[in-house]
Amino acid sequence: MKKNLFILLLFLSLNLIILSDEKKDQKSLKDLNKDIKNISSEINEIKKNQDSILNSMYSLEMKISRAKLKSKKNLINIRKISANIKKTEKEKGLLQKKIDKKKERIKTMLRIIQKSRGPAWFRVFFSMGNIKQLLKNHWYLSHLVSLNSNFLNEMKGDLSLLDKKKMSLKNLLSREKILKKNEEKNLAHLKEKQKEYKVILTKIQNKKAYYLKYIKELKIESDSLESFLKDNDEFYLNSNVSSQYFKGKLIWPIKGKVISRYGKKQSTRFHTYIFNNGIEIKPNKKNTKIKAVYNGKVIFKGYKKGYGNIVVLQHSRHLHTIYGHCKKIIVKNKKLVRKGDFIAISGSTSSLVGESLYFEIRSNLKAQDPLKWLTKR
Fold this sequence. Notes:
The protein is built from 5 helices and 12 strands. By secondary structure, it is of the alpha+beta class. Helix 3 packs antiparallel against helix 4.
């Protein structure tokens, strides 16, 4: 009894897990379709804008993101199809075994009839000596004929169901083949766009005219960000506290090595000077979580040309922190965060140095040296 109950509970648990996975897949597919649609709209908008290096980078990054999302979508659908194929093959196998057993039963019946040199029931029926026994045998034989008729009808139904299973399996295998082919095309497209993106990065690093144009466009985007901060500089948390109060009290947004510092920097290749408004931090391999450096409010999350995916936090009326090159943003816009809260995952969007965190501090809208504001380590 206990064993049967355990088996029943195990069966129910497995079914609940399967249903849960199916619901997760449906939600994932719905979210992926929404994201793909949004990115496609964004790509169409980019095409309308004037041609520029940052626009080209942005367009390619969006196309790469869309291809990656399509890949996730394809893999979910392939996994679902594969599960259905496995299930159908199992059902087909069990049905085939059932049919084979019935075929053996029919063969046995035919052998009996053949050995008796005629229909056995016919000989038995007419070999009875009295009418009472004859009537009794008539009932048994009628029942036997009825049973055999039902048996043959079941056999016919099973054969029909087997044909349907075979057709279903054929269709599933065909759909799986199409999905895998689509995924191969999508991956080829993804590699092509990643290659195009690398070509742009190479041009920035090796061609002076291209590099200077890129720097000029970055300055425009930096000024645009400053205008945004000015328009969204609100009274709220710590509004009566001077921004200087936070110096040396901000925690590090991520563990890693500073690979590019704040301030004036010379390009040894082109013998030109640029000014870095922030620092680049190369994260440790095991730690890609970006944290809020202090209590604040999310006033922007999204893509910003030159910065990639960014989060902008406001900590007091005139103090903001910016987190760029993110792979994924976790926090929602307009939400309050606390010091140390997980807000994003480090990535390489719009980065010239691969995976890194671009971190910037703005006090009274002007860029500051983050190393003077972060805690000593």
